[in-house]
Amino acid sequence: MELTANIIRDELVERCKQGDTQSFQTLYRQYSKAMFNTSLRIVNNTADAEDVLQESFLDAFRSLHDFHYRSTFGAWLKKIVINKSINILRKRRNDLVDMENTELQALPEEEGINEEEIKYRVEEVKKMITRLPDGYRTVLSLYLLEGYDHEEISQILNISHNTVRTQYVRAKQKLLSLIKQV
Asked: Which residue numbers delimit the RNA polymerase sigma factor 70 region 4 type domain (predicted)?
């Protein structure tokens, strides 16, 4: 079933490359909700997420000739959405501080979450994530919600691996602090 879905999507992409507007619309319907949610988790603003969604699809459709199936269309599109979302954050302000030249205490390895913290409902935690500063929210969302590892995040954000780890640990600490306040 998965293989069939991929073949159908690949066929849609090929039709789009040939200018088939119906295929454009079909791909948009298939991916728009997921891409909107991806952007919203990063930019934390509905209007910005909608702008990112529209610009990402326009760029993707204009650049289809550059898509060569090294990844799935969805993964390729998600990377465009993430990059545009990050650009929105950079325009607002740069909360990601380069820590490479700063002396840092050794960070503890990622700690397990205790049972009490696990009991919080997913929606409550997502609401708390939206209250994090942009930099923390971006790293945390890319790691926990989008499934990127620290190295991939460092490449996406163009920051060092240590900065990603630091931002992630601090985001977790801030998130736990927010949760405990409730």
From this structure: 124-175
Reduced DSSP (H G I as helix, E B as strand, rest coil) percent helix, strand, coil of the chain, to 5: 75, 0, 25
User: Residue 3 above 60 pLDDT?
Assistant: no
Q: 150 and 122 in contact (C-beta within 8 Å)?
A: no
The CATH code of the domain that includes 168 is 1.10.10.10
Distance between start and end Cα atoms, the chain: 44
Which structural domain, as residue segments, surrounds residue 170? Answer: 115-181
Residues 34 and 80 placed together within one structural domain of the fold: yes
CA pair distance 41, 180, nearest whole angstrom: 22
Are both 80 and 128 inside the same structural domain?
Answer: no
Instruction: List pLDDT tens digits, range 30-66.
Output: 999 999 999 998 898 999 999 999 999 999 999 988 8
Question: What does the alpha-carbon distance between residue 86 and residue 144 come to, in Å, rounded to a whole number?
Answer: 16
* Tokens 């931002």 -> residue: 167
Q: Give domain status of residue 123, yes or no.
A: yes
* pTM exceeds 0.85, yes or no: no
